[in-house]
Amino acid sequence: MNKEDIIYEGKAKYLLKTDKDDEVIVYFKDDATAFNGVKKDNIESKGILNNKITTIIFNYLIKNGIKTHYLKTLNDREQLCKKVTIVPLEFICRNIAAGSMAKRLGVEEGKELTRPIREISYKCDELNDPLLNDDHAIALGIVKEDDLMYCYDQMLKINDLLIKLFDRINLILVDFKIEFGYTKDNELVLCDEFSPDNCRLWDKDTKQKLDKDVFRRDLGNIIDTYSEILNRLEKLGDL
Q1: Helices (DSSP H) in the chain: which residue ranges?
Q2: How high is the pLDDT of residue 34?
Q3: Could you tell me which residues are beta bridge partners of residue 199?
Q4: What value does the mean pLDDT take over residues 40-59?
Q5: Alpha-carbon torsion 100, 103, 105, 108, what sign?
Q6: pLDDT of 237
Q7: Cα 71 to Cα 59: distance, rounded to the nearest angstrom
């Protein structure tokens, strides 16, 4: 990776330019962050694991009709993707009360919800990614109403698909956050990644946490945890 090729550096990834204006390379770093960057570490091979897990998940979603920015995986750390203009929102789907929602609302972690909860947060580090309601997002011009509803619809479809997938490897999909972006043709697609960095996964039998909470809460070795997720997914073969 050449520094002059870097378009953007995020907390866990670089975006690198290619020889095509409508394509970028996503490079997965080994950096681990939590609590909006307050807790940080560099964990060898974490980026490789997240790249491999995201590759499996995105290919599964694409085969099931979800449009994404993903084109192909180039090597252990890099994916070729469509260049997108990010919608500055994080879309959060919660199936079980956990993390910040449980703390914010005084709900016992692990409480099953009667329906998936949809949340959005404004992607702004300076404001610590505040939660918004739909009216905020639309009235402030962050997203058009039709596009917001489309993203919600896609998120719920993704939720249904991944609940089924993770159930096959004895995991509970507790919650996740995803991002969407506009391609050069103004098509809204899923982007960024899908890995234990941006979702919560619990073992169905033991309720052991198998996601970034291991890092957030000092519960164990994050490489062993992410490797366990990858191993379970790889045993399923071609999805």
Answers
A1: 46-63, 99-105, 134-139, 145-168, 213-216, 222-235
A2: 78
A3: 176
A4: 96
A5: positive
A6: 87
A7: 9
Buried b (16+ CB within 10 A) or exposed e, 76-112: ebbbbbbbbeebebbbbbbbbbbbebbeeeeeeeeee
- Identity of the amino acid at 212: K
234-239 contacts at long range (C-beta below 8 A, 24 or more positions apart): 234/56, 235/169, 236/168, 236/169, 239/56, 239/59, 239/60, 239/63, 239/165
Structure tokens at 42: 């560099």
What is the three-state SS of 111-152?
A: CEEEEEEEEEEECCHHHCCCEECHHHHHHCCCCCHHHHHHHH
Q: According to the model, what pLDDT value does residue 37 have?
A: 61
**Total-model pTM:** 0.95
Query: Average pLDDT, stretch 102-127?
Result: 95
How far apart, in whole angstroms, are the C-alpha atoms of residue 63 and residue 143?
27
**How many whole angstroms from its chain centre is CA 231?**
19
Q: Are 112 and 56 in contact (CB under 8 A)?
A: no
Supply the Cα-derived Rg of the chain in whole angstroms.
17
- State the Cα–Cα distance between residues 13 and 78, nearest whole angstrom: 10
